[in-house]
Amino acid sequence: MTAQAQTVGSSEQGESTSQLSPQATPLVFIGCLSYDDALKSMPQYAIVEEEMAALREAYEAEMKRVEDDFNQKYEAFLDGRKDYPRTILLKRQTELQQLLQRNVEFKEQCRKELEQTRKEKMAPLHAHLSMSISKVARQHQLAVVVNTDANACPFIEPSMALDISEEVKLLLSKETK
Questions:
Q1: In the 8-state DSSP scheme, what is residue 177?
Q2: How far from 105 is each of 92, 100, 108, 109, CA to CA, in Å?
Q3: What are the residues whose beta carbons fall under 8 Å from the beta carbon of 118, sequence distance 6 or more?
């Protein structure tokens, strides 16, 4: 008898195969977990977060230095503009505009590099977590594992789903020792 046939009334007993028998309990084919919680439980996650914080701090320090340099040049420009001949005034104004544009581009480049670095550092963690989820799901013969983060699935019938969060976290902790 197949797994699905066990949950539906038997046609041998004269019942419709499309109705659940009163004493039949549904089999669990759905698992659920908070992907973010599982990810954050990994020791490597804390290491990546520390590395990213240090990198972000270095970029922010450089952006602050660049901004301070621009502000200093801009103040000097404002202080001396009444004394500059028109040609020098226009040249310095152009230089400031170019410097401002380079600073904006630098900030955008920093943002993109931080984002790319985070993706690269997190990729092995995501792969490892996916393997662990798959392993636990296969052990329980689950067809689907639903991510419960961000209220993506506002209701899951507890009797029809298996929360595999703790098992995945346990597996992750064993594999990192």
A1: -
A2: 20, 9, 5, 6
A3: 48, 52
**CA atoms of 30 and 38, how far apart (whole Å):** 17
pLDDT in tens, 35-51: 999 999 999 999 999 99
Q: Tell me how far apart the alpha carbons of residues 92 and 102 are, in angstroms, rounded to a whole number.
A: 15
For residue 52, the model assigns a pLDDT of 98
Distance separating alpha carbons of residues 112 and 65, to the nearest angstrom: 19
Main-chain phi, psi angles of 81, to 5 degrees: -65, -30
- Token pair for residue 131? 């393997």
Residue 14 pLDDT > 50, yes or no? no
> Hey, how many other C-beta atoms are within 10 angstroms of the C-beta on 34?
17
Strand, coil or helix: 82: coil
The pTM of the full predicted model, rounded to 2 decimals, is 0.72
Q: Supply the Cα-derived Rg of the chain in whole angstroms.
A: 30
Burial class (CB in 10 A: 0-12, 13-18, 19+), 119: exposed
Q: Between the CA of residue 91 and those of 96, 150, 158, what are the distances in Å?
A: 9, 53, 71
Q: Using CA atoms, how far apart are residues 159 and 147, in angstroms rounded to an integer?
A: 17
